[in-house]
Amino acid sequence: MTEDRLSFKEMCAAFEVTPRTLRYYEYIELLQPDREGRSRFYGARERARMKLIMRGRRFGFQLEDIRQWLLIYENEGTEAQMQTWIGMADGQIKELAEQRVQLEEAYTELTDLRANVAKELGLK
């Protein structure tokens, strides 16, 4: 094992994902590890892609959107990828803002309902 490559197990541990998740990312062509027999090894490129995938998932992007965004870099370069990222980020920011409003409304409604039921029961 060389320092610049991670095994399948090391990659799972490094990014705190299950083997099933990592295999799925390969299946949908987000990752393309080097293969030696049945073993898989992940170099700097795949680790960088995984970092971007994990960040995109944290922000709520769909895997297909992430895959398309990563393809832009390969086909059109960094500037095109960054331009696309701005548009994707704008859309996701809007989506998250809408979700925030819905969450705040649900929180307020649940808090009020709980208070009313507790009041009826003579509780705090």
Task: Spell out the key features of this protein.
mainly alpha; single chain; three-stranded antiparallel β-sheet; elongated; 124 residues; 72% helix; 5 helices
Report on this structure:
It is built from five helices and three strands, in the order βααββααα. With 124 residues, it is mainly alpha-helical. Helix content is 72%, strand content 7%. The longest helix is centred in the last third of the chain and has 43 residues. It has a three-stranded antiparallel β-sheet. Helix 3 crosses helix 4 and helix 4 runs antiparallel to helix 5.
List the helices and strands and how they pair.
Elements: E1 6-7, H1 8-15, H2 19-27, E2 34-36, E3 39-42, H3 44-58, H4 63-76, H5 78-120
Helix pairs in contact: 3-4, 4-5
